[in-house]
Amino acid sequence: MSQDQNSYNIYSMELGPMENFVYLIHDKASDKAAIVDPAWEVEEMLDLADSKGIQITDILLTHSHNDHVNGLQKTLEHSDATIHLLKPEAKFWGANLSQPVLHHGGDQIKIGDSQINVLHTPGHTPGSACYHVGNDLIAGDTLFVFGCGRCDLAGGDPEEMFQTLKKMKTELPAATVLHPGHNYAPQAPTSTLENQCQGNPFLHFDKPADFVKYRMHVHDKIRETPYEAVSKQQALDAIK
Ligand SMILES: [Fe+2]
């Protein structure tokens, strides 16, 4: 709807056995694009770009987990594209990438006329990133529709995740459209930050210790995908 006023389109595909989303941020004026988290049957997205005459110039990684990067090689064989990720994620991952651009939070990436802001959002992994373009946020495994990324895997940190989500809640406009890294949504695969503030249990806690308890010890025992909305009272009752 609002896309016509933007300098870009966002295409999304749900691919693979883990409901991963692969995104394409297409700058309309230049027909250049960034692919985000190339994985699984990524050739479907590469074919879509080809069919529309779109050149993939950049690859943005939200984080280094295999289910988000296992199409990297195929993408590099298809397009002579530059890889972008955060410096702490590159260090955490340790992969031997060919000439990646290593970012810090606050950096900007330009695809033609479209400017993408890089947010450092640690918690799921040390160098997790969200990519903010116009009114859209490509969030990787930091924030899902009514969910958030696990913090119990290597490099995860629930206290950092609490701070990350608090910052997102306070600093991003309520109308921001969330494009998550997995489709765990009950209905529409996207949502606004405003709707998430109302129904995402991970955005309901004011105290770090409450968040940590819910994320690490309660959530996985009481919820499964697709995630339905949870009220603040329900979230607080769950950790009693
Ligand atoms: Fe992940």
Describe what you observe in this structure.
- The protein is built from eight helices and 14 strands.
- It has a six-stranded mixed β-sheet with strand order 1-2-3-4-5-6.
- By secondary structure, the protein is α/β, with parallel strands linked by helices.
- The mean pLDDT is 97.
- The N and C termini lie far apart (42 Å).
- The radius of gyration is 17 Å and the shape is globular.
- Helices cover 29% and strands 28% of the residues.
- Bound molecules: fe (ii) ion.
- The site of fe (ii) ion has 5 residues, from loops.
Identify the bound ligands: fe (ii) ion
Shape: globular
| Percentage beta strand | 25-35%
What class would the helix/strand composition place it in? alpha/beta
Low-confidence stretches: none
Radius of gyration: 17 Å
The first-to-last residue Cα distance is: 42 Å
Strand order of the largest sheet: 1-2-3-4-5-6
Helix-strand string: EEEHEHHEHEEEEEEEHEEHHH
Tally of helical segments: 8
Overview features:
alpha/beta, six-stranded mixed β-sheet, 8 helices, binds fe (ii) ion, 240 residues
Q: How is the secondary structure organized here?
A:
Elements: E1 8-15, E2 20-27, E3 32-36, H1 43-51, E4 55-60, H2 66-69, H3 72-78, E5 82-86, H4 87-93, E6 101-103, E7 108-111, E8 114-120, E9 129-133, E10 136-140, E11 143-144, E12 147-148, H5 158-171, E13 177-180, E14 191-192, H6 193-199, H7 208-222, H8 232-238
Parallel strand pairs: 3-4, 4-5, 5-6, 10-13
Antiparallel strand pairs: 1-2, 2-3, 7-8, 8-9, 9-10, 11-12, 13-14
Helix pairs in contact: 5-7
The structure holds fe (ii) ion.
